[in-house]
Specification:
This protein is of the alpha+beta class and 390 residues long. Helices cover 54% and strands 18% of the residues.
């Protein structure tokens, strides 16, 4: 290399190392700025691709469930960008300044979190303890819910337990995890549990005055979970609410009505009030269809025609027998009562009654030719009974 080339190279390094900004012990040079821009662009441009290759490598070694894949993608992406950013600031020679600033920020925040807010028993509650309890409680609640879902899907679903028994076991496991978790959180935060005992005693006095209904609903919720007089998916009527049980919590039970309205019924109503459970012993409900028929035909032939017409509807259960009862005859009028069973129309029996009445009307309408024998006439004033009467 001749002297001219050496001088040119020396001038290039002088420009490259020219300080633009003093950063305490470090300084940001022109070369460092160029490296920050170029490597930062490369990180954002090719970081996701590196993350994809990393995920494929992990999936080749470990089977990742589909429900955890999204969370793992976020974690690995964050790790890739954090590692890339640390490498870039190290190459740009500003790592001492960056990590020094991070340490100063940590010391400032740490001092703020050491601020004493109030005293609970013998324990000083700081901002850090309060934040720790809030964040940890949120994580605990989410974790307990995820544990209940995992227990139901991965463990209980493979057993021969009934759906309501699985629900009760899952709910009980969730509440046990929450109770034990909160005890561990309070101890780890350094809170004196003797003060909690005093607070629970004061709470007991409050329960005897203003919180009786909440306590009553809580105890009734436990009875519903373990005794199981109602189950998830049951068609029930309590007071004036009729619908399908969607959820049973410790305070109230959610019922979805036929109009798709969610009604929260206090659990005490299911213990103290009269409750009709239409699907406790079976998965279908019975629908009554009484009406009068004017005819001179044989009643047995009419009953057979009615049964054949009703059986054509897809909402009528094939497992339970359809009954056509000949109840009364008065002159030329015959009174029948059709009892059909349905699983599909549990939430909307009125629609099934309407469909069956239309089908029967079409089947037994008057002939247009008066010279032909008269068919059956179904009066439109026919009465329709609600399944609640069963």
């Amino acid at each position: 290399m001749n002297p001219a080339q050496r001088n040119l190279l020396q001038e290039f390094f002088d420009i490259w190392n020219y300080p633009l900004l003093a950063l305490r012990e470090d300084s940001l040079t022109i070369g460092g700025l160029v490296l920050l821009l170029v490597l930062g662009y490369l990180l954002f441009r090719y970081g996701p691709k590196c993350n994809s290759h990393l995920l494929r490598f992990i999936q080749g070694k470990v089977v990742i469930p589909a429900e955890y894949r999204k969370g793992i993608v976020r974690v690995t992406r964050a790790l890739v960008f954090i590692a890339g950013a640390c490498l870039i600031v190290k190459i740009a020679k500003i790592d001492h300044f960056i990590f020094g600033q991070i340490n100063e920020l940590y010391d400032t925040v740490h001092g703020m979190f050491d601020l004493k807010l109030f005293k609970f028993g013998k324990t000083d509650i700081t901002l850090w303890a309060l934040t720790y309890l809030m964040v940890s409680s949120l994580v605990l609640v989410r974790g307990a819910s995820a544990f209940r879902h995992w227990l139901g899907v991965r463990v209980l679903a493979r057993t021969k337990m009934q759906a309501q028994a699985q629900y009760a076991v899952g709910a009980s496991a969730q509440y046990v995890v929450l109770f034990l978790g909160f005890v561990v959180l309070l101890q780890s935060a350094g809170i004196d549990l003797s003060a909690i005992t005093v607070m629970v005693g004061a709470l007991g006095i409050g329960l005897s005055f203003g919180l009786q209904q909440i306590t009553n609903n809580f105890i009734c919720g436990l009875i519903l979970l373990f005794e199981r007089p109602i189950r998830i998916g049951d068609k029930v009527q309590v007071s004036d609410v009729v619908g399908t049980v969607q959820n049973i919590s410790l305070r109230a039970t959610t019922i979805i009505t036929g109009k798709n309205i969610a009604v929260l019924v206090p659990n005490a109503e299911f213990i103290t009030a009269k409750v009709q459970n239409w699907t406790l012993n079976s998965n279908y409900i019975a629908v009554n269809l009484p009406f009068n028929v004017d005819s001179t035909r044989d009643p047995q032939a009419i009953a057979d025609d009615i049964k054949a017409c009703v059986a054509e509807h897809p909402g009528v259960s094939r497992e339970a027998e359809t009954r056509v009862l000949f109840e009364e005859i008065s002159g030329s009028k015959c009174k029948f009562n059709v009892i059909v069973n349905t699983e599909k129309y549990i939430n909307d029996p009125d629609q099934l009654r309407s469909d069956l009445l239309l089908a029967l009307t079409r089947r037994f309408k008057k002939p247009e030719n008066k010279n032909k024998p008269s068919n059956i006439v179904i009066p439109f004033a026919a009465s329709i009974e609600s399944p609640t009467s069963l």
